[in-house]
Amino acid sequence: MKRHGLLVVILLTVLLVWSAGCIKRTPAPPPPPAAPPVDRIEKSRPPAPAVLPPEVRPPEVKPPEVPPPPPAARTERYTVGCIFPLTGRFADAGTRALEAVLLSADLFRKGSASPWKIVVTDSGDTPEDMRKAVAYLADEAKVMAIIAVSGSTEAADAAAEAQKRKVPLLLITSREQVTDAGDYVFQHFLTPAQQMEALAHYAMNTLDVAIFAVLYPKDDYGEEMLSLFRSELKKVGGKVIRAVGYDKTQTDFAREIKEIAGSKFNPQDKVYAASSAVRQKLPADFEALFIPDSPLRVKMIASQLAFYDIRNAKLLGTSLWHTPDLLKRGAEYLEGAVFVDSFLENGFYPETNDFVDIYYSAYRREPGNIEALAYDTMEIVLGVLEDPRITSREAFVKNLLAVQGFRGATGGTTFRGSRRAQKTAFILKVQNGKIVQVK
Fold it and tell me: If we measure between CA atoms, which residue out of 420, 402, 426 comes closest to residue 188?
């Protein structure tokens, strides 16, 4: 107990002395300099940007798109594009069309260098090739307008592509309604409908016939021409009393001829069995017979009509007849036959004769239908571009629609608010073994 009390006394004494400063402590080493406050560091440097993975990066803000320049700034005013079949089975026609357009461009301004630039591309073998050709001329060559020779299959693709790219396209094609693609698509061709209109009017008004029969091939062309011919005759008061189709591969038309004449067919009656016992005269109750087919089959049918002594009926045809083959062997049965087309090298229009002379002087051969159409098409295009105010494709379209009464190698051409040219049909006739123009 005494020891315990003594310890308490000593402890209290030490505390009292220390609190009074009587006891000195050993000095501690000086502390390190104090760090600046944390909030000052954060304010003295910018915050580090957050790094986000690519998939969660915030989307970039793109500047507003600049609209393309107006057509006048992105087209070559003196440049015209051409799309022709320069390879494949129609290469010959394409080459002749090219010769014609180059001839037109060179002679357009006599006595001075031609200002025109012609950019030519191959139409290729597929619709895709045709679309690519239109796209190239419209966007890269920056042509003011395009002239294209096309079959009916590729014509629709060319028209759609031209309308999409807003480039004027003048199609030399027989395809009906191709201009329905849009207001940049034009057609310069004597269409099947125009052919039938001209043929029906000539037959009714000049040949003075009103009752017709039709022998036609059972294919798309034959059926289309039959339908158009019937439609046009209905407008002018004519009538098709009988229409008989045949297979494209056949050579004996005895059954079809008897059917068209309204007689019963005897299987023993074959045209090639030319005995007097077989031969008979068939009464024909029609005044004219329309045959929309190639010259080869037309001549076969004509000779077999003569076999059955059907001679008084006028034979009528389409532009498909107009080839050199028509006047070869068997043409004597076609004497007096009438058909339509858009060109004849020895026609009586002065513009036709001038073109034939110019073409022959340049190439030492006579031109055909495709050359004449290509030449006139380029003449129309360059005629529109002669106006210095035509500086855009839109202005070109507007002025092309105003073309009226153009006279060229293929006769008269008028657009006059329509994108399908109204063509003057050449009425052609087989006379004394030659093809002559009668209207």
Answer: 420
Per-residue pLDDT reduced to its tens digit, 41-83: 233 333 443 433 334 343 344 444 444 444 444 678 899 999 9
CA distance 214 to 232: 14
Instruction: Check the CA dihedral 327-329-334-335 and report its sign.
Output: positive
- Specify the pTM: 0.78
Asked if 428 and 338 count as a contact pair (C-beta separation under 8 A), the reply is yes
What is the number of H-type helices and E-type strands within the chain?
A: 13, 15
Q: Which tokens in the block code for residue 227?
A: 């339908």
DSSP 371: H
User: Hey, what are 109's tokens?
Assistant: 């301004």
Domains, the chain, in order of start with CATH, read 71-190+347-424 (3.40.50.2300), 193-341 (3.40.50.2300)
The token duo for 49 is 């940007």
Residue-wise pLDDT for 95-134, tens only, equals: 999 999 999 988 544 555 778 899 999 999 899 999 999 9
- Per-residue burial over 201-217, b if 16 or more Cβ lie within 10 Å, else e, is bbbbeeeebebbbbbbb
